[in-house]
């Protein structure tokens, strides 16, 4: 559950990080040197929410293996590694 929440939170913060990196490399503005206008915060928040919802849809569209399956760990057969799998 923590991984799920961290993943969605990461996608929310991604637009803010990309914008800050763009401002740093494009205009040479160091973090903390200028204040971002409120409209920039609003636009970044909207883009972050859309990215978060898109990531949620992708996560829900591809569910993990069914619960109750038996996990067979990776092992060696005839000198080759056989990857782990659920049966």
Structure description:
This is Multisubunit Na+/H+ antiporter MnhB subunit. Keywords: Membrane, Transmembrane, Transmembrane helix. InterPro entries: DUF6111 (IPR046093). The protein has 87 residues and is mainly alpha-helical. The protein has one domain. Helices cover 57% and strands 11% of the residues. The protein is built from 2 helices and 4 strands; from the N terminus they run ααββββ. The strands form 2 sheets. The chain has a two-stranded antiparallel sheet. Strand 2 and strand 3 form a beta hairpin. Helix 1 packs across helix 2. The chain is elongated. The two termini are 23 Å apart. The mean pLDDT is 85.
Rg value: 21 Å
User: Largest beta sheet: what is the strand line-up?
Assistant: 1-4
Distance between the termini: 23 Å
Number of helices: 2
Structural class by secondary-structure content: mainly alpha
- Mean pLDDT, as a whole number? 85
Shape: elongated
User: Stretches where pLDDT falls below 50 for ≥5 residues?
Assistant: none
* Major sheet size, sense and barrel closure: 2 strands, antiparallel
Estimate percent helicity: 55-70%
Give the strand tally. Answer: 4
List the domain count as a whole number: 1
Q: What portion of residues belong to β-strands?
A: 5-15%
H/E element order: HHEEEE
